[in-house]
Write a structure and sequence with these properties.
Elements lengths: L15 H33 L10 H31 L5 H34 L2 H34 L1
Length: 165
């Protein structure tokens, strides 16, 4: 294999620049999906404050609501960080580093969004049904996220490594 071809054994004869470009495009696609869902959830949260029944929330529910607003804003900022970084380093030939930083930012944004999702579901259950239902719904959703976003990918990675041997 030529020295300018990546040594990743995935069947793709790419140069490091080609791999970085492909990985950057994949990250952008994932960011678009994440950002769309986060924007919808943030819009829902922001609209709640302007509902007449919002004034009836208990103090703890208002605190949770404000925490959720902060999580929504923070997840949007972290998800947009790779775009801001790309603008700052445009034409500086650092795309492999950009891809690594964007990968970490995307993982951080997913963690924040998972907390946001659990919190929003728990918040809605708390307001509609009560605290007990909020705890149960939050725990159940947290477990589902943990299984689908952490356990299943670990299993797939392990199986992929085994089959590569």
């Amino acid at each position: 294999m030529s020295s300018n071809i990546d040594d990743f054994a995935d069947g793709r004869p790419e140069t490091p620049a080609q791999r970085a470009d492909r990985n950057w495009n994949e990250i952008l696609q994932e960011l678009r999906v994440l950002q769309t869902g986060t924007q919808i959830l943030t819009g829902f949260l922001l609209a709640l404050a302007f509902q007449a029944s919002f004034a009836e929330l208990e103090a703890a529910q208002r605190v949770l609501y404000l925490v959720l607003i902060c999580l929504a804003a923070l997840s949007a900022v972290v998800a947009l960080a790779p775009v801001a970084l790309h603008r700052a380093v445009f034409h500086l030939q650092v795309k492999p580093v950009l891809v690594r930083v964007a990968h970490d930012a995307l993982r951080g944004a997913l963690a924040l969004v998972s907390l946001l999702l659990v919190g929003v579901v728990a918040f809605v259950f708390d307001v509609v049904v009560g605290l007990g239902a909020a705890v149960v719904s939050g725990v159940v959703l947290g477990v589902v996220i943990l299984v689908l976003w952490i356990v299943v990918p670990m299993f797939v990675r392990h199986r992929g490594r085994e089959s590569a041997r």
